[in-house]
Amino acid sequence: PRSVWLSRHGESLYNLYGRIGGDADLSPRGHQYAKKLPELVRQSVGDDRPLTVWTSTLKRTIQTARFLPENYNQLQWKALDELDAGVCDGMTYQEIKDVYPEDFVARDEDKYNYRYRGGESYRDVVIRLEPIIMELERSEDILIVTHQAILRCIYAYFMKKDQSRSPWMNVPLHCLIKLTPRAYGTDEERYQADI
Ligand code: F6P
Prior knowledge:
This protein is α/β, with parallel strands linked by helices and 195 residues long. The chain is globular, with a radius of gyration of 16 Å. The model has no long low-confidence stretch (mean pLDDT 97). It has a 6-stranded mixed β-sheet, with helices on both faces. β2 (52-55), α3 (59-64) and β3 (74-76) form a beta-alpha-beta unit. 34% of the residues are buried. It has helices spanning 13-17, 28-45, 59-64, 93-99, 101-109, 122-128, 130-137, 148-158; strands spanning 4-8, 52-55, 74-76, 142-146, 175-182, 185-192. It has 8 helices and 6 strands, in the order βααβαβααααβαββ. α4 packs across α5 (101-109). It is 36% helix and 17% strand. The chain binds 6-O-phosphono-beta-D-fructofuranose. Residues 15, 20-21, 82-83, 85, 147-149, 167 line the site of 6-O-phosphono-beta-D-fructofuranose (F6P).
């Protein structure tokens, strides 16, 4: 690809309450980001060629993409849904620590390999993203609106970082990342929305 654009969804109500997973709507700030996103994208693309938008199947990514221009094709991928936290889905980190103290420690010790009970690990996510990466490699002008863990893995792939470091990559909310692969490495530009 010439460039790939990446963004997390806008702040969701679960982000606001500190809950993981789920399928919450955007918060008022999240909606503001959705309204800002077309402008951020326009700035960073530089001309008016349309992008193709890939979201997950979850409401927060679809809501984030909804003000993008009508000539942008949008596609929803289940493979872009957030890391499945299994029995911990919908809990806060404090609740997980209280209810599953051993799991909390195990995850801290090996976050890449730790698999939530009935859910996934980062390692699992890297495997399920393989078809996405393959499709991405042969596409141009794709904007991906997805979730923190997923974005970390895609980011690590393009930045040629070891996947085992992906669980700690910094991908803030309300920030559009433009990655441009080059012969010597990948150029990165970040556009932070001031909301
Ligand atoms: O809190 C937002 C979120 O996307 C959760 O849904 C997800 O479980 C978590 O981030 C992933 O981040 P970490 O692997 O650091 O817990």
